Fold:
Amino acid sequence: MKYLFFLILVFTAVTVHGQPGDKIKVACIGASITYGARLENREQNCYPAQLQKMLGDKYQVVNYGVSGTTLLRKGDYPYWRTPQYKDALANNPDIVIIDLGGNDSKLINRIHLDEYEQDYRDFIHSFTQLPSHPRIILLLAMPSFEKDTTGIWDSEIVKQVNPRIQNVAYTEHVEVIDMHSPFVNKEANMPDKIHPDIEGAGIMAQNVYRVITDTKPGISQLDGYNVSWDTPGPSSSQSMPTGNGDIGLNVWVEPNGDLCFYIGKTDAWGAASSTEKNTWIKAGGILMKLGKVRVSVNPNPLLNPGASFQQILKLHNNEIVVNEGAGDNAVQLRVWVDANHPVIRVESKSVRPASVRVTLDDWRIGNGDTILAKRENKITWYHQNPDDADSHLRRIIFGGVIKGSQLVYKDDTTLESHTAVTNQLISIYPLTTKELSAKKWLSKVNNQAAQIEELPLEQTRLAHQQWWDQFWHRSWIFIRGNKLADSTTKGYILQRFVTACAGRGAYPIKFNGSIFVVDNTAYKSNEKSPASLIDADYREWGGQYWMQNTRAMYWPRLMAGDFDEMLPLFNMYAQILPDNAKQVKNFYHHGGAYFAETSPFWGGLSYMGPEVKENWTGHYFTPILELSMMMLDYYEYTCDQKFAKETLLPIASAGIQFFDQHFGRDAQGKLLLDPDNSIEMFWKVHDPAPDIAGLHAVISRLIALPDNLVDKQTKADWQRIYKELPELPVGNEDGKPVLLPYTGPQTIKGHNLENPELYAIYPFRLYGLGKPDLPLAVNTFEVRKFKDKGCWVQDPIQAAMLGLTDDAQSYVTFDLTRKEPTLKFPAFWATGHDYAPDEDNGGNGENGLQQMLMQTDGKKIILLPAWPKVWSADFKLNAPYNTTVQGTVENGKITSLVITPAFRMADVVIEGK
Structure:
């Protein structure tokens, strides 16, 4: 039976200072944001007050905020001089949270910023010297949306204030919470451009609450899923991935001890050669590698007989560590890609002085690549697309600069140590530009490198580690119960990691390999063809984006809380929209737009009138509906009204307008979708189920949007269209009602291995647990024609949404353990119908596992909808309306649960008997 669940997590008693049972005293120090300025009932709604509610009776939170104050002693209103400062010291707190910096960015105070760090250290010391020796937590200053440069100015916060706070945190060994990034896209939550509203104050409180109470269960368990190897290479097929969201590396060690890595980048779009015969590769550009880098250390410990070796991917901090040899012969190499800056770091450390050499291996010399000659103590190279390339690829240049302290020029592709050293830093600065000359690209990459070089290395390392620490604390799933549970957990964690390494760039993730494709030494285009060597620039199905495959990596980002990784997908389609709308107008003489199922990053459509011969993706109009569905979810999860107005509504409105004006009406006045593909499966059919389901789902949600987002006339138009929608086609099989893939006699030839009738379950969620006609959906799933596993197959998600635990578990565990046999990394998934590492395989596994554990429907949060009783788990997932759900499952039952904000507990439902 179902029942509402109101279990309150019982926290383990914690005594920080004082006698057992004493309240833990928390001092919130800050300016107007801490005080709660501009908030209605600020005493109850400011972030310290909301933090008190979250922490409960074991804590005593005191608000010492004073509006207008600065951290600077020479500021226009120093906090040092306030009575609240003296009171906070006198209270002898156990935890001190400091949020001072925004007012220091004012023009009147900027002239003293050189003294900011020392003043901050002194401020911290005034508390750490107290008898309580409190825990200190610093908050990075929140963004300002003010336009007055003399006031609280965001560019000064970003460039001067927050870097200083980070540096103080590092040197003083105290904690720091990033309060800037969570609000960059939340201007709607800062009505006066400076101060958060009640919801924004709640987000602040939630972030502080997590840090105060978190015993880091996610981190302690995460270390157990680091990937460690004890044998080197020998090739890129034995590589580990790492990256910062835009720059990605495949890292391996060759048997001779050389560290090698390919550099990939999300915007490194090259052009196919004029002799290329593969249509898919010619049509969408080639997402190329920037190059291959080799790092050698001499003397090389691996040349000694029996030398030890270890290569380990450390997930928490996202770095790859290579240990070669032992004792006096030991050498360590560390590789990381800065999460916050476009730079690759390689650090060597040896017991004895050693010579270090770095070499650029470039296989495209004479084929678009140029290596600049005789560059003083650096290697510079770039790729430039030819003038006869597609206009969207023309004038793209990508490449990089390699530099290192104490490294000197040997030749155009090699730097080496001037003298033997025990420590060496190598820095690589990649850059892609468009519409710039090679000369201007060179100037830009050198300026970029110079700016990064001004930053203290340890400060950037700390910020990098903090970014990844916060990433891992957004969400987690750790399953216990049997060996399969552990391997499924590993697959989930590593897929999320790989996605994060490539998910914050200029363009979305490519389903066919992401930026982690490698050399294929035995590639076969089909079973009968001879094997051949394919380099790491190649991928089957080329550079186009296929919505049906690409979506798989993005739906799981919602529950994972990885909202920043969704924006490249949304932004690409938003940029495509205007030109596609012009083509629709030109082709069909009506408004609206749609997106082709297969599209290069610049979009574009082909004329597909009713007389055009049917094909796989010609009369295929579904993608804009699914994208709108995903954007509606993003809006519900984040409550980002700016996103809703500027991105969601233009795309969704254009899609609905296209369907309304492109298709006619039947005798009953209902919308008649004909001719229209039922995805790739059935071509040019009558009223296909995916589009009908999408229109029902999307329009009903658009109508429900707040009135401040949509005018009355637009809503009236949507309501008219909604009334004109046909019902989903329903038939009968084995005496049971089932959904059909299209309306009419089921005689159309199928062309793929898909079940389009199940789109009404996922992605459009018209059927599922707690919704009408669940048996109809279950019947349809059980008699589905195609039951393949892996790759883009949607069955794991659909099974979970229907509460079919055994099916969901079977499909999910298959997806998250389906490693490509020719590749070593455990989350480089098998080729399937695509190309390895197959990203939609892992994405569908992520999504399915999340749906087994939690589902949402409006405000309802459904827990354990398809969870096997033999599995236990620790989890934290995100839900709509800025909600997090954290808990523990033991043998099929929830044993602890924390819902943030707490009032959302009333919306929780547990599935079970």
Q: What stands out?
A: Residues 567-588 form the longest helix (22 residues).
